[in-house]
Design a protein that fits this description.
The complex is a heterodimer. Chain A has two helices and 27 strands. By secondary structure, chain A is mainly beta. Chain A has a single domain, classed as TolB, C-terminal domain (Neuraminidase, 6 Propeller), CATH 2.120.10.30. In chain A, the strands form seven sheets. In chain A, strands 10-11-12-13-17 form a five-stranded mixed β-sheet, with helices on one face. In chain A, strands 1-27-26-25 form a four-stranded antiparallel β-sheet, with no helix packed on it. In chain A, a hairpin with a 5-residue loop joins strand 10 and strand 11. Chain A is globular. Chain B is an all-alpha fold. Chain B has two domains: 91 residues, Orthogonal Bundle (Cytochrome Bc1 Complex, Chain D, domain 2), CATH 1.10.760.10; 81 residues, Cytochrome Bc1 Complex, Chain D, domain 2, CATH 1.10.760.10. Chain B has ten helices and no strands. In chain B, helix 2 crosses helix 5 and helix 3 crosses helix 5. Chain B is globular and about 50 Å long. The N terminus of chain B is likely disordered. The chains are: A mainly beta, B mainly alpha. At the A-B interface, loops of A face helix 3, helix 5, helix 6, helix 9 and helix 10 of B.
Chain lengths: 436, 190
């Protein structure tokens, strides 16, 4: 921690962290007191308690027992194999008038976050596979390469000045001169390892800010848990892995962020907890205006809902509220400001957000690219669905968007981990028009 | 001699290209030599595969092929399989009969103790009350006890990575003693 944050904020953050740590310690002690397996043999199968306490941090906390609707809900498993190109659901995706969607590349199972280099090579991370892919683009001919295999949940990728940075579950590494090594199975060099190893929300989004630093999050280690001061936060560090500092707190799990091209403020999505209710809480779009801000998780959701378990003794007013609500359980993930000039001018510097789509909701929500329009001061004017059809009217997914990325020609790429494909969104005359 | 069940499963097996069908037909006896005829393994440490969820089998074979899950000899067995082959094996394995619960006397007290653990950890939420599993969640009912212990310990010490994080999430607070009870129960429950 080299950089100082404003003192008042720091104090508040410290107090919050102290409280968190104290509670986390209590929580860690709890299992010792939890009922041990019965020491004496039980005479007969006892009726199992219907509401036996779940262990702290269980992903199932909050799920109602004996509720048939809730019993049907579980994370929707993505197909482990990429969809064949001729079976991609291009005709099911819907774009506003004048916009076109085409397939940019396919055959990359679980394609997630994207990064771009100067030659137009697109790097694609994955969460459930062990690979980072590279899509080269030579004379209009695109080719998918496996750049690196054997990584562990390499969800995050970022690129700067010849170097690709990769965020795995618990380490961040780099490949220098990556463009020269695309078919040479380069070995990433680890630059940062001071990270927890939790599976829950351990996968990372990675981006490089206007200050030339790497930004990444350390998610909350469970659906809804009190945690130590190394979770639930955003960090940044120098490109060589030095100078790491914690810059924002109270974040449950952000899997997408970008900087406002005008104000250079960092905007990020955050995914709300499961099992609070069908319609609450909403996912958040947040904006960091000061270092050290606390966005409220797990005490306060969406700026105005105290958590039913952890909210006691906390006041939502003490935390920074979101600048927009992104929908219930919507899984708002990757987001970028549109900086190109292909789309009409009204879209410039507005935010496109990939909403992966809900699982913890009977009638699913999201499964689209949302357009977030901003006011001049950077606050949010509106949130509306922009590209739809990933979630079909029959409540089933045919695709799930994860990340969006500007291309030099002003088009926008959309990654889809359901199909293992990248879509390309363009504006203007195009022979491959998406269904309407 | 190929069992009736395996022959029946092969007969049902029509959705794949002929090349993949041929490969699966040729190799299936090798699979069943260890994993057991009729879906029931007789070998220590080797899981029963009968009526396993096709989605789950596809994922596991993919993980073996890509070495995301390391287990001899499966990485070798899977290394040359195409995506279509994976699906072919998954489909045919899912049609083998489900394994039968472990025979012999049952320790009722231990079963009761484990039943409480099953309830407490909500195993049946994903694996379903009859432990048949669904999609990416495996059938575990009547699985070999030693294999269940191995799998749960692998998730616990992170030597076995799940395709997603679900098991790592739920296994964290479960002790080794509880793992033994859970495996005892799941292998025997009817």
């Amino acid at each position: 921690m080299t950089r100082r944050v404003p003192r008042g904020t720091l104090l508040a953050a410290t107090l919050a962290l102290l409280a968190t740590t104290a509670l986390a310690q209590q929580q860690q002690e709890a299992p010792a007191q939890a009922p041990a397996p019965a020491a004496t043999p039980a005479p007969a199968p006892a009726p199992a308690p219907a509401a036996a306490a779940l262990p702290p941090g269980s992903p199932l906390i909050g799920r109602p027992d004996n509720n048939p609707a809730a019993a049907k809900l579980a994370p929707v498993p993505a197909p482990p194999l990429a969809t064949a190109e001729n079976k991609l659901p291009l005709d099911k995706l819907k774009a506003p008038k004048g916009f076109n969607i085409e397939v940019y590349a396919s055959g990359m199972p679980n394609a997630r976050s994207m990064a771009l280099d100067e030659k137009g090579t697109v790097f694609v991370g994955s969460r459930l596979q062990d690979k980072v892919y590279a899509i080269t683009n030579k004379d209009g001919k695109r080719q998918v390469h496996v750049l690196v295999s054997g990584l562990y949940r390499p969800n995050g990728v970022a690129y700067k000045n010849g170097t690709l940075y990769i965020a795995e579950l618990s380490q961040i590494s780099k490949i220098d001169n990556v463009e020269d090594q695309i078919d040479k199975s380069p070995k990433p060099v680890v630059i940062y390892k001071d990270l927890p190893k939790d599976e829950a929300h351990g996968w990372k989004f990675l981006a490089i800010g206007p200050d030339n630093k790497l930004y990444f999050e350390v998610g909350q280690p469970g659906n809804n848990v009190l945690h130590d001061d190394n979770h639930g936060q955003m960090r940044r560090m120098n490109l060589d892995g030095t100078g790491a500092e914690k810059i924002a707190f109270g974040i449950r799990n952000t899997v997408g962020f970008d900087w406002n091209p005008k104000t250079h403020e960092l905007y990020f999505t955050d995914n709300g907890r499961d099992w609070l209710s069908e319609d609450l809480p909403n996912d958040e779009l947040n904006r960091i205006t000061k270092l050290g801000q606390d966005f409220g998780e797990p005490y306060c959701h969406q700026g105005n809902i105290p958590d039913i378990e952890f909210g006691w003794g906390h006041d939502c007013k003490d935390y920074v509220p979101p600048i927009a609500l992104m929908g219930p359980h919507a899984a708002a993930l990757g987001m970028r400001f549109y900086t190109g000039s292909m789309f009409p001018s009204e879209y410039r510097d507005q935010i496109f957000v990939a909403r992966h789509g809900s699982w913890n909701k009977s009638k699913k929500f999201g499964g689209d690219i949302a357009l977030v329009k901003l006011n001049k001061d950077g606050s949010v004017k509106s949130v509306e669905p922009f590209i739809t059809g990933f979630l079909q009217p029959d409540n089933n997914y045919v695709g799930r968007p994860v990340d969006v990325m500007n291309m030099p020609d002003g088009s926008m790429l959309i990654s889809d981990d359901w199909n293992g494909a990248i879509w390309r969104l363009t504006y203007g005359p195009n022979k491959k028009v998406a269904g309407r | 001699m190929r069992s009736f069940a395996a022959a029946f499963a092969l007969g049902c097996f029509v959705a794949l290209p002929a090349s993949a069908q041929q490969l699966v037909k040729e190799r299936l006896p090798t699979c069943l030599a260890c994993h057991g005829e009729n879906g029931q393994s007789q070998l220590e440490g080797v899981p029963s595969l009968g009526a396993q969820q096709a989605f789950y089998v596809t994922v596991q074979l993919l993980m073996f092929r890509e070495k995301m899950r390391v287990a001899d000899p499966m990485n070798d067995m899977a290394k040359d399989l195409t995506d279509t082959d994976l699906q072919g094996f998954a489909e045919i394995i899912s049609q083998l009969p489900a394994p039968k619960p472990a025979a012999g006397p049952v320790d009722d007290a231990r079963m009761a103790r484990a039943q409480v653990l099953v309830q407490q950890n909500r195993c049946n939420f994903c694996h379903l009350p009859n432990f048949a599993g669904q999609q990416n969640v495996p059938r575990i009912g009547a699985q070999r006890e030693d294999y269940l212990v191995k799998a749960l310990r692998g998730y616990k010490d992170n030597s076995r990575h799940g395709y997603d994080a679900s098991m790592a999430d739920v296994i964290a607070p479960i002790t080794d003693e509880q793992i033994l009870d859970l495996a005892y129960y799941i292998a025997r429950v009817k």
